[in-house]
From TrEMBL:
Gene3D superfamilies: Anti-sigma factor, zinc-finger domain, Jelly Rolls. It comes from the Bacteria. Pfam families: Cupin_7 (PF12973). This is Putative transcriptional regulator. It comes from Simiduia aestuariiviva. Residues 97-189 form the ChrR-like cupin domain. SUPFAM superfamilies: RmlC-like cupins.
Length: 215
């Protein structure tokens, strides 16, 4: 069961088409797994269409966001759920890989491999990370926003356990040490605005050499 979702601001920007493309890839990939957020985005799209149709050009009220969120949370007519997708990888990632070719995994540590995705933007580094079963990622902080989406398997850190479809946002000052479950590798999508910063006594020596390569 998915327990971690994009917040309302991310979903509103995604629905409006104003969310940065790199982060939109993460939100779109989460929607592949999450029927709950699919419904929320559908409601936002409906609210946005209503606003464009009905609202004249008037000063924006301080209560506008509250009004939008109230409509977002309102019940919608029940309909038959969409058939579950047989496609394991989110469509947006499949589309990127179909253009760039097979993912090229790079060795980072004995427990961690990375494959950068070619997204045609320079604001965020978008990549797949594969943690071996029972493996861990070195403890690190963040120099900018990091979005992580679990695509397969699960991992845990100091704050909880994360399974397929879970969507996490980490900012500067939030230190963690991801650890994959022992029974299977964990594959995640990551979208970062800056290189991570290692915090361990020895690993921090690598900080000057950590790269940031949006493709």
């Amino acid at each position: 069961m998915i327990k971690h979702h994009p917040d309302d601001n991310l979903l509103i920007e995604f629905s409006a088409g104003t969310l940065a493309f790199g982060q939109s890839i993460a939100v779109s990939s989460h929607l592949h797994f999450c029927h709950h957020c699919q419904q929320r985005v559908e409601r936002l799209n409906h609210v946005g269409a209503s606003l464009l149709t009905d609202v004249e050009s008037v000063p924006v009220s301080d209560d506008l966001l509250d009004s939008v969120m109230a409509q977002l949370d309102a019940p919608t007519p029940k309909r038959k759920p969409a058939a579950p997708s047989n496609q394991k990888m989110p469509r947006v990632i499949d589309k990127i890989l179909s253009k760039q070719g097979k993912a090229k995994w790079e060795f980072l540590t004995p427990s961690l491999d990375m494959a950068r995705l070619h997204t045609g933007q320079q604001q965020f580094e978008v990549a797949l990370h594969r943690i071996k079963a029972g493996g861990s990622v070195a403890q690190h902080d963040h120099r900018g926003t990091e979005i992580t989406l679990v695509l397969d398997g699960s991992f845990s850190d100091e704050n909880g356990i994360y399974n397929e479809g879970d969507f996490l946002v980490r900012d500067a000052g939030q230190v963690h040490r991801p650890l994959a479950s022992r029974d299977a590798p964990c594959i995640c999508l990551s979208v970062v605005a800056a290189p991570v910063r290692m915090t361990g006594p020895f690993m921090r020596l690598l900080n000057p050499f950590l790269s940031f390569k949006p493709l």
